[in-house]
Amino acid sequence: MKTIKSYLAFAAIIFSLVFTTANVNAQTAPQIKNVVLVHGAFADGSGWKGLYQILTKKGYNVTIVQNPLSSLEDDVKATNLALDKQDGPTILVGHSWGGTVITEAGNHPKVAALVYVAALQPDNGENSIQWLQTAPPAPENGVLPPDDKGIAYYDKAKFHAGFAGDLSKEDADFMFASQGAFHANGFGTPITKAAWRTKPSYGIVATEDKSIVPSIQFAMYKRSNTKITEIKGSHVVFISQPAKVADVIITASKKQ
């Protein structure tokens, strides 16, 4: 009888340990492993490399969209193609103009949450330029008017200070050289269905941003009840502070 009681007590301890371990693992393990990254204007997908390395080392499946930057519709299509390939729920991340893209593409059924990184976040019927005009631009901002082909570029003389002020000049020069040809009509194209209205949203305010000034970022994120994280960094905070940006994405992956 004593042996049976001892066995039952031992079994209870083992069960408790297994249950506790499983519970802890359930609380710490991310529920969502897929992350899709969408770059903005005057950039390409190569800027995500540092963030990609951090997330993949933690077990995430990361896909980087190469936006054609030819129109909002084309960038949304490129993002949807990447989302179609995911094997389950996905965190969709957009930087700068990429925020406008994920606001539309985020309606994809595989998108579980949105993360805006120093990004635009229009509502239904709104376009990007409306928000960019809600506050005076920083003196360092170097977005040039569209050329005769309708393509907007960033002034090379202002790119380092205005776009990537916390990177080395060498890295900023590489970013300038690799920027995509952004068709400016995208800034004027309105959103038809804002995904943040139905999907959980997280927003990073880059407090040293000279391209989308922080007051605009705060105004958009507060209006949409987006969960805000402030990070000291330039417009390319995802390059200068990849670990902190990764933390926000990881939080989003565990909250859904």
Give keywords.
single chain; 256 residues; alpha/beta; Rossmann fold; 2 domains; six-stranded parallel β-sheet; two-stranded antiparallel ribbon; 10 helices; 43% helix
Largest sheet entry: 6 strands, parallel
Secondary structure class reads alpha/beta
Number of helices: 10
CATH class of the largest domain: Alpha Beta
Provide the low-confidence segments as ranges.
Answer: 6-29
Q: Provide the spatial order of strands within the biggest beta sheet.
A: 2-1-3-4-7-8
Query: Which overall shape is indicated by the principal axes computed on the Cα atoms?
Result: globular
What is the string of helix and strand elements? HEHEHEHEHEHHEEHEHH
Q: Quick one: how many beta strands?
A: 8
Keywords: Signal
InterPro entries: AB_hydrolase_1, AB_hydrolase_fold, Sec-Metab_Biosynth_Hydrolase
Signal peptide: 1-26
Domain AB hydrolase-1: 35-248
Structure characterization notes:
It comes from Flavobacterium johnsoniae (strain ATCC 17061 / DSM 2064 / JCM 8514 / BCRC 14874 / CCUG 350202 / NBRC 14942 / NCIMB 11054 / UW101). The protein is α/β, with parallel strands linked by helices. It folds into two domains: 1-30; 32-255, 3-Layer(aba) Sandwich (Rossmann fold), CATH 3.40.50. The chain contains ten helices and eight strands. It has helices spanning 2-28, 49-57, 72-84, 97-105, 128-132, 156-163, 169-178, 214-223, 237-240, 242-255; strands spanning 34-38, 61-65, 90-95, 111-117, 151-152, 182-183, 201-206, 227-231. The strands form two sheets. A six-stranded parallel β-sheet has the order 2-1-3-4-7-8, sandwiched between helices. A two-stranded antiparallel ribbon has the order 5-6. It is globular, with a radius of gyration of 21 Å. Residues 6-29 have low confidence and may be disordered.
